[in-house]
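User: Can you predict the 3D structure of 2-oxo-4-hydroxy-4-carboxy-5-ureidoimidazoline decarboxylase? Sequence below.
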Amino acid sequence: MTPTHLPGRVAIPSLPEQTRTPPSPTALESFNTAPADEVRRALLSCLRSPRWADRIADHRPYPDVDSLLAASDEAAYDLTPGDLTQALAGETLPVLPKGAYGAAHTALSAASAAYEARFGHAFVICVDGLTPNEALDHALAGIRSRLTNDPEEERVVAAEELRRLARGRLIDVLRGARNCATSHNAPTLGKYQDTSAP
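Assistant: Sure. Here are the predicted structure tokens for 2-oxo-4-hydroxy-4-carboxy-5-ureidoimidazoline decarboxylase:
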């Protein structure tokens, strides 16, 4: 696993990009042809930035899913500080896996309160591709290590985590699935149901 290159301290190692099965071409076709307001609502469930959602919606149609995901990444990289603040304000603490022990809830709640007091926004972390126990360990380790970042370093890390979350949520919207990695669930839109997925 190669660490993400960020200025200053590297808070947590990067994880591999999405391991989900890609959406079907039919799902992309539906995304490309759906009414703009419906697409924007779905996109805002992926990342609470109107600028990001408008940019993705306005550049349809996409020839393939990789092009859509590249556009999502590019739009996320181009978020202004105000856009980032707005997107972070729409986030909530990651949901712990079912059966997580009480001490984990207490530890994550306490660390989250300290994080929000220090940085002024919810802790965000992408746990896609991890088992529930790995996700819990990754979230707890991540929040503890990121508390040592200075505010500017943490904005860079949080922006990268938001980009990764938006990418995963966008795949889920196309597949008609819900993202269990956070409590920020995307709506399941009938037009985007991918019936070819296992």
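Residues 151-175 form the longest helix (25 residues). The helical segments are 25-33, 36-44, 50-58, 65-77, 81-89, 102-119, 132-146, 151-175.
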